[in-house]
């Protein structure tokens, strides 16, 4: 049994003081009942807890989205560079979360963090057919030939053949790229194979989960149960 404020703070929802306020404001429900007393105790293994209507995981697996800023590496530790874990509040770091997949140091946008290895594997594995969508600004104007080449499966300069992907163009230097695998520097190398250098790259969705554009760069927020399921929505290209 755990106090409601402790249970929510262990789940990484917010700091204890903020949580007390949130509970007193009537924004937290347990098993369908609004609970306004932070000290009330519940069994974290069975309680279904929602905050503002979104279900919170209380049983030791944690899921977050971050708007990854440029300038940090997607790693759990690095000798010289700041990592995405350095941006996390201490309580969340203690949950043992790690980044799901990898964004380059200069890539921004949707990065998932969890301590659930199965979930991470499902998101990353090309077999899962989970689409990742990027917005790329390139030095040039992608054209219909590029769209067709992406559809057929781009061959990278080292001979690696990529799975068929989607390139959406609008006659400007900015395009959307949808892939379902995560090879090293994949999007940059796919566009480079068509003679386009990527200037900026931002991931905007994973599966059916969109980056919350209200999130400030470097900040995280927990995923609701519904968002977790959305992330795993498979959409074969
Ligand atoms: N493709 C890239 O080239 N870089 C990323 O960070 C992600 C996908």
Keywords:
4-stranded antiparallel beta sheet, 237 residues, binds uracil, alpha+beta
List the helices and strands and how they pair.
Layout: E1 2-3, H1 4-10, H2 16-24, E2 28-30, E3 33-34, E4 41-42, E5 49-51, E6 54-56, E7 63-68, H3 90-93, E8 98-99, E9 108-114, H4 117-124, E10 132-138, H5 144-152, E11 166-168, E12 174-179, H6 186-192, E13 198-206, E14 209-210, E15 220-222, H7 225-231
Helix pairs in contact: 1-2
Uracil binds next to helix 6.
Describe the structure.
The protein contains seven helices and 15 strands. It has helices at residues 4-10, 16-24, 90-93, 117-124, 144-152, 186-192, 225-231, and strands at residues 2-3, 28-30, 33-34, 41-42, 49-51, 54-56, 63-68, 98-99, 108-114, 132-138, 166-168, 174-179, 198-206, 209-210, 220-222. The strands form three sheets. Strands 7, 8, 9, 10, 11, 12, 13, 14 and 15 form a nine-stranded mixed sheet that branches. A four-stranded antiparallel sheet has the order 3-2-5-6. A hairpin with a 2-residue loop joins strand 2 and strand 3. Helix 1 packs across helix 2 (16-24). The longest helix has 9 residues, at 16-24. It is elongated. The termini are far apart. The model has no long low-confidence stretch (mean pLDDT 92). The site of uracil (URA) has 8 residues, from helix 6. Uracil is lined by residues 103-104, 107, 185-188, 201.
